Amino acid sequence: MNILITGGAGFIGSNLALALQKQALNRFGSGQGYNLIIIDNLSSGNLENLKEYKGNFIRGDVSKKESFTQLKKEKFEVIFHQASITDTTYSDDKKMISDNVEGFKNVLNFANDSGARLVYASSAAVYGNGPLPMKENQKLFPLNAYGISKCEADKIVKETIEKKNSQIIGLRYFNVYGPGEEHKGKSASMIWQLSQKIKKGKPLRIFKYGEQSRDHIYVKDIVAANLRAMESNARGIFNVGTGKPTTFNRIIEILNGIFNTHFKPEYFGLPPALAEKYQNHTHADTSFFSKILKWKSRFSIEEGIKDYFSSIK
Ligand SMILES: NC(=O)c1ccc[n+]([C@@H]2O[C@H](COP(=O)([O-])OP(=O)(O)OC[C@H]3O[C@@H](n4cnc5c(N)ncnc54)[C@H](O)[C@@H]3O)[C@@H](O)[C@H]2O)c1
Fold it and tell me: Residue limits of the NAD-dependent epimerase/dehydratase domain (predicted)?
């Protein structure tokens, strides 16, 4: 089976590629099973993430149609689309939207042409500061260009699914954390940011009063949700979170427990320029995904953080 992963040098894409490689080995033995191909322009991804990857790698930009010329020689059964500019503070809003949306359209057309099942990454950013818990059918309020680009892709998918019998499933990831996110710098999870401050003995500065919350989901669960989506024939757009948000104060408590430290948060005011664009809470209503795909996240926040830091010690 030929599988294409766009953005496979990134955090989630590389975890997914390595999990597929492992699944193929377990199911079919060495040299059999999945023929994996990654396409990534390395704009944020890191080849270090793919040290153990044995499939093919193409350096290419999915927002450019010509990048698909080489890929057209293969027939793909499944495409995982993870490629995206993911830095929400990216300075050029127009470029971010056009690259992400053009990239999405090219991948969608390519999937349609090759008859592949498309599993793509959407985001909780589409909900902005909308009502909680966030449900797939509620009104969307993206707060930045990144969220707008994800809304655009989801809109195209809804229209496509209504018109054609395309095999498309969108996964609105909530806040993902886990091994392989270091290269994302300021865009890495709050869990990674705070753990690095603890490691360097720096103050844990967070916005007043640390009661903002995130539905943090461990990358192993995100990978499992993608594999589940690949193997089902469900179509549509689904939240992928844990349904259990955690405050920043609580994350600091958990990290102190893991690292055996006693850091206290230092609170400071949200800069007024940021206030309008800041997402205060994310909280997934996970009932649609669990009803249709019969799947639930496995790791609690405590278990996920423990697994994360034991794996990179
Ligand atoms: N990490 C999260 O918390 C989170 C939450 C919601 C949604 N998502 C989505 O999940 C997907 C993966 O995110 P991630 O956290 O792994 O980020 P990442 O930045 O680590 O990965 C994105 C990858 O896409 C590549 N890329 C970017 N533009 C490209 C292009 N035009 N052509 C080819 N490759 C390109 C980058 O080089 C990178 O390897 C993204 O679509 C992101 O929007 C992530």
Answer: 3-241
